[in-house]
User: Fold this.
Amino acid sequence: MKRFLTAFIALVTLAWGWDLLSASGAAGTLNPWAVRQHALTLTGLWSFSLMSLAMVLATRPAWLERPFGGMDRIYRVHKWAGILAISLGGLHWLVEMSDDIIKAVYGRAGRLPKDGGAFLEAMRDAAESLGEFAIYALLAMLVLTLWKRFPFKLWRYLHKVMPVLYLALAFHAAFLAPLGYWSQPVGALMALLIAAGSVASVHALAGWIGRSRRAEGVVEAVNEPAPGVTEVVCRLNEAWRGHRAGQFAFVTFERFEGAHPFTIASADRGDRRITFQIKALGDYTHGLAQKLVPGQPVRVEGPYGCFELPSGKRRREQVWIAGGIGVTPFLAWLEALQAAPDKAPEVDFYYSVRRRDADPFVARLEALCATLPSVRLHVLSSEHNEKLSAETLRERGRHGRRAEIWFCGPQGLADKLRDGLRRLGMGGVRFHQEAFEMR
Ligand SMILES: Cc1cc2nc3c(=O)[nH]c(=O)nc-3n(C[C@H](O)[C@H](O)[C@H](O)COP(=O)(O)OP(=O)(O)OC[C@H]3O[C@@H](n4cnc5c(N)ncnc54)[C@H](O)[C@@H]3O)c2cc1C
Assistant:
């Protein structure tokens, strides 16, 4: 993610630098007004480009899943592009506000003349006001995004205003960009970003995001295999195109509640029946088994995600790690392997639970692994102080550095394992992670 965002910002900076060196001739004039002008265009360009990127990624572009490594990663890039865009937008606003200070210290000498006629001037005034309003709203949104205690549901509704704010920013950028830009590569880049971001905004406002991947269906069965865990079986209509084991979908049981992402915890049996295992992790999922009834309609959008069963041909040692409800993609993998046990790779599968006896999935995992001799299941119960660490992985591992880890579980455990592996000189181990968090 860091590499992608760095490359993106570098590309935008290059386009800006090209204009600076080749067209304006202002690069040589380095009075405070010129420096302010360059800082204003650069911070504005960075902020707007990143905001356009965030807007495009918000449309859940499934065609970008492979290059990005899954929709959860796309959402992470979307989130950080948005955070950076707003922070740089704040900086842009501060630079804009610096004119009074420059005037007071250096006077008006060297101030760059305005280009364009009266119409352009009027549009620029409107664009400036819109930009100022948008940055205040965006800074407020940034605070709410970073303040994790702010209720997700409310945040999600407020977040729906983003396409409107983006369109305001596109207007701001289009009218306030220097006129010389439009005959330079930086202008072509801006035009592309404005077009892509505006189309994405209209898509979002019209409710078209994920439209081609939506299927309707009914809830067939609802069970509560353990307190706080709801198992839901859904049967979908012909619009459902099937899924690969390990993928997830956005599920709407109630229109006003909206969609929640859940991993499809079953393999594709070709009958358009899918199962979700849902843990009570918040307001809506708490007591879900009591809210759902068989026969009620359900809408499923997907499938998404690239957390897929690694092929048996891989030479690397496989280590699968599930923590708590993070077991769901592995349930789907193991179910999918039942059809071809000889294709199962050599795997050490660690499943970390609080209490082995009370866990709703241990018996199912044991039954699934019993037919797969190459999959060695290790259940670690924190009640008995059995904790998974990088040291355990090294001691039990067969090929050490050449291992490949597939992880789905609490972020704290993932961080601890990554740090531990690095400390043990096993930083080369490939670590694939499915994140259950998008905000
Ligand atoms: C790719 C993915 C796969 C997941 N698979 C499973 C699974 O198989 N089983 C399971 O129990 N849980 C799964 N989750 C987590 C599940 O989506 C949340 O626990 C659930 O949405 C919480 O809703 P809530 O209203 O009860 O909680 P809230 O208190 O409203 O939210 C708790 C947290 O859940 C997340 N969340 C809530 N609503 C949404 C939403 N509409 N879109 C995105 N994130 C949201 C946010 O990070 C939020 O901070 C998955 C999440 C992701 C991203």
